[in-house]
Prior knowledge:
The structure holds two protein chains of two kinds.
Chain A: H1 3-9, H2 15-52, E1 55-56, E2 70-71, H3 75-81, H4 84-100, H5 103-114, H6 121-133, H7 136-147, H8 153-163, H9 166-177, H10 179-198, H11 201-241, H12 255-280, H13 284-292, H14 298-308, H15 310-326, H16 329-334, H17 346-354, H18 362-393
Antiparallel strand pairs in A: 1-2
Helix pairs in contact in A: 2-18, 4-12, 4-15, 5-12, 6-12, 7-12, 9-11, 10-11, 12-15, 15-18, 17-18
Chain B: H1 4-23, E1 27-33, H2 37-53, E2 57-63, H3 66-79, E3 84-88, H4 94-98, H5 106-111, H6 114-117, H7 122-125, E4 126-127, E5 130-131, E6 134-138, E7 141-146, H8 147-153, H9 165-177, E8 181-184, H10 191-205, H11 207-214, H12 223-235, H13 248-256, E9 260-266, H14 269-275, E10 283-286, E11 298-300, E12 303-308, H15 315-326, H16 328-338, H17 354-364, E13 369-371, H18 374-377, H19 380-395, H20 400-414
Parallel strand pairs in B: 1-2, 1-3, 8-9, 11-13
Antiparallel strand pairs in B: 3-12, 4-5, 6-12, 7-9, 7-10
Helix pairs in contact in B: 2-16, 10-11, 10-12, 10-19, 19-20
Amino acid sequence: MTQASDTVAVAPVGRSRGRLNQRVIAPWLFLAPGLFMFAVYVLWPILQSITLSLYDWNGLYNQDGEFTGTFIGMGNYAELMVDPAFETSLWNNLKWLVLYMLALPIGLFIAIFLNQTVTGIRLYKSLFFFPFVISQVVVGLMFAWFYAPNFGLFYTMIEWFRNDGAWIIATPFFLLKLLPLAIFVILIGRITFWAARNAPSRAWSNIGFLPIALLLVFAWVMSEGISQYYQSAWTELVASFAGKGIAILADPDLVTYGIIAAGLWPQIAYVMILYLTGLNNVAPDQIEAARLDGAKGWRMLWYVVLPQLRPATFIAVIVTVIGALRSFDLVSIMTNGGPFGSSRILSYYMYEKALSEYGFRMGYGAAIAVVLFAIMMVFISGFIWKMWRDEKER
Amino acid sequence: MVHKKTGALALVAALLLSTSAFAQDKRVVTWNADYDPIPLAAAEAMIVDFEAANPEIDVVLTNFDHEGYKNAIRNFLTADAPDLANWYAANRMRPFVEAGLFADITDVWDANGLNESLASSVLSSTIDGKKYAIPYTYYQWGIYYNRDAYKAAGIEAPGEGGVTWEQFLANCETFKAAGIDCVTTGSSALWPVAGIFDYVSMRTNGYQFHSDLAAGKVSWTSPEARAVFAELGKLQPYVTANHAAIDWQDAAAIFVQNKASHYVMGNFAVGVFKEGGMTNDNLGFMVFPEITAGVARAEEAPTDTIHLTSGAKNPEDAKTFLAYMASADAQTKWNAAVGQLPTNSGSSVDAADPFLTAGFASLSTATGGIAQFWDRDAEAEYAKAGMEGFQRFLVQPEALEEILAQLEATRLRLYPM
């Protein structure tokens, strides 16, 4: 903007003063309400949280309204360093961050799939978008029932699969075990075939019978073994799968993945809509040109479509990262932090320590919040830097 | 045309009418509570009785959602304090007492002879020698058993004297063979397993050790604490699988459907069992069996209390209401409606309800002491750490050393030597 040169070069006299005010002060006046709100509702609470993290406070004021906390400096952070629950939360947050990124390719492919002009496609788009519209609490509740032991759909499906449906998995494995035998038989067949081709018919009648004879003997020997082998291998295989269903939310190793799967459902819908909008703005002439050059399928997607979807991808990444770091509702509804704290994440741990039924440590919760803020700042700074760079280039 | 005169007349009339409403002059006592529907109806009936006896006092009850109340109370005690507030006894009220948000009501206790009539609850209502709570109800914990499940497994149901620990475990083995869970629980909210732990602890080492454990005075790696986990470990194989993923209500469904034979729970669960279809014929109650011979029997009986807040605007009338709530008749009526036990020794219990009678008998003869439940006897953060440890032990008993080490580390951090 050329404001600076204006204010230096032109001496403000008469009408120029009005224009000066317009150019310099007016933008600030327009920004003022927004800046004020931002300062009061975003910046001030951040500062307060950072200050609070230096205190040991149980969240209560005494009857005279006085603050009951004591200043302990970096004490909360020192405790965080050695807290095993904090370490678990950090690792879980990392899992969330990495696995939530799956929403991007899946959302993209669904968007591409839905980007067709077929009658009723809008109905399908609405149905695919539906998970994002419903409250996260409802999503969490539904998935908790889905995973629930004894009556949950997922649990009964796994149980059926392991008991009655085990043959679906067992058969391919069993066939794999027959593979060496099949190869042997084919090999014999090919040798016989070659021998028949190279040798004259008299040689064939001599040599040709030999492999067949060997095969017959072999088959006779194996037939006894095969039937027994078949029986025992089959039973053993099926038995190894049999069992009860898996209660995802009760297993400390699987619980985080179960919750992430629940969270991905609405997130994929969100990303899908972003990409659908982006796909609407893809230039059709570029597609035509690419098609004329012989690009199709994967190459078309990678070299022509995706670069045009960059703004949509950028926003999708921002939204997905923030969603992954923030997701409190699902953990709170589905597991309350998981079997003995296995599915804790930073935002839930912060709530547990400061605001929950057994949490009377505001300072410690604030320290966890500050750590979460620091992690988010890494990503937010990256995004702002990129946006600023894009703006400068214009 | 503006009719100024008519307007002025109307305004004066309105003002006069409003002041005449004040002239009825009922003094208001505000009460914040977190009752479920049945206790709420009983509380409102109690208010009606009180207002009939004290026509110049109007008690206004504001009911909160039970879970939301636990957060709301931290705000309203400072911001806009009612005169009376519900809460719990023992260490659970300590944060508010130490912040000076609950008022000292030792005078109410002394003036109404409550030290005698509420004798069993004196300890849990006292902090540093002063009393801050009026207990009005408690309920027993114990083992509820399903007679139909016993029949299905071909075991004789326990008689009057209950069963011994060895017999209980042997029965569990038979139940397991019959495909029935011996003990069911839903530990996703953590507190149900604390009930099991508390009982095993009190039966193994007695009330005093358990109390010291909750207060952080003894080590988790001590032989006595290890003994508790050893006994708990004997029970562990028979607990419902995947209990960490279900609520206590889901576990109650398992119990009602005859898929489990025992449930260590409080008496409030009887209503839930009966709604699920159980009757006095197939639902039984027994006290937790003795584990170490000769240990005085202690029971769990969490007490609900009501407190006078420091910011009360009408403390005098509020104290009158507190005295009313502590009286034998009010407690008899309230507890009869809700199905719990009155704390006043002069109250009576409905003889027709077998569970209340059994509970009253079990608590009156508990020579070892009455515990308030792990999450009220222990301070909040310590209680949570403990409950997570118990839940983990019931899921991963092989991780015992790690669990004990973590509990011990928490204890040393919160209660440094």
